[in-house]
Design goal:
Helix content: under 10%
Strand content: 35-45%
Radius of gyration: 23 Å
Strand order of the largest sheet: 1-22-21-20-19
Distance between the termini: 95 Å
Number of strands: 25
Amino acid sequence: MLRAVPLFILALAAMSTVRPQDARPAPEIDGRGAAAILAPGSTWTLLGEGYQLTADTAVDNSGTVFFTDAHRNRIMKIDSAGTIALWKEGSNDAHGIAFGPDGRLYAGQHDRKRIVALSPDGTESVITEGVQTHHLTVTVRNDVYYTQAPAHLVWLLKPDGSKRIVHQGLKWPRGVRASTTQPLLVVGDSQTPWIWSFQIGAGGSLLNAKQFCRLEGGSQPDEIDAGGMSFDSEGFLYVATKQGIQVCDPRGRVTAVLRPPAAGDLTNVFFGGPGLQWLYVTEMDKIYRRPATRRGVPLPVVPNRQLQR
């Protein structure tokens, strides 16, 4: 009996050691911070698959989504119900796309070395030539910013057709996005862990360059592979990465990492659908969506006239 007492005490000590570990909350199924962003009880819905490089996306103010099926030389659209249909056949290898405040869809045709604007009926107008880019964005002033990754450059294309380099030196500038709520441009340096931010000056120059958000994951910087980006109405930035959707708050801190819907690497993330309250993601050949508690930012609109170049 005397020997049983120390054994009993040891057993109690072991139980007290295990209990705090057992009491730890289980990891969130949808990733860190998911409960503040994704609608409760929802799941990812696969809208379509079998595409050949879902390169880039753009969303109009009705929530209709347009995306490039680049290697099949076409642009697709997704209506509010999530139905996918062909919008333009023969897109001339359009890759990056973005809506401008004039209501036209701007597209970078990398292999044809030009940027074009597509009217609502798909009619194509050449904006500038001698340009090779995969990613672009359009501001409220109808300025087009585009990246040229192999040359480490960020360019500005003005409404009068003039263009100039506005930043150089990033290792591999890829995704680029203009905030519609403030004069701010963000650029993903995809072979590093950094998203850079710039203030947009009065003439379109990029000012106060800084490393805005350091993304998480990967033993090597290029294993993060930052792709498409999108802002929500609260100023949070969503970045598609190999680890999932990384969400940076307005101060540049990663506050959430949402798990991807499948095993593939994400190429883009954005808000669309009714009320811009659906979160969409793309892989190379698939596109998914899921209802969110946050919403995207409507595009600026130029009333009663169309801006012309």
